[in-house]
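Exam revision sheet. Question 4 asks you to relate a sequence to its structure. Input first:
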Amino acid sequence: MLPLVAVILFAALRPLKVLPRIRISPGYLLVDQNGNRVSSEEMRGQITLYGFTSTDCGLPCVGSEELMADVAAQIDSQSDVPVELVMIALDEQELLPDALRAYALDRGIEPSRRLLTGEAQQVKVVVGGGFNTFYERDSSGQLQLDKALMLVDGLGILRAEYRGRLPSTSAILRDIDLLTQEARNSTGLTRYAYEAAHLFLCYP
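Answer key, structure tokens:
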């Protein structure tokens, strides 16, 4: 009983906020703008913010791209819990790395941010199936995309879904900070306090 009492007292005296554990994020093996094969397993141990775009997306992708750029400019690059920003390209066919690099240069995307591509069916399984984000080409070939960003923790668990009206940069930074604090402090007795916060749905 003593550990349980200690956890309850800790949670009461020092209330914690956590993000919900929504579901396991999808696995993948894709290619980045440098021609490197990138798997979801490589993202373990770090926080990853995913966005979706295409080289011909236009207006549907502008908001999420700008938001990702704002987050990239403000995250703490020296944090002991690294944060990765990833955009998955939704083009009709797998792009060559040169095309992704040219797109990144045209949009002012920093080299440190990853752009991923893959076969159309493979990307559809990851984005449409795994992240439950709808997109398709209309009769004119224009991409129709539900605006969305996904925040995944270091264990590969989806912790936040931002859909439709995208949140502010500060809201995303707050959520990244919550995951950073949880990853950093979930040891010893504090780990049970975090589990209690999940149990009692202590969400922001």
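Marking note for examiners. The radius of gyration is 18 Å.
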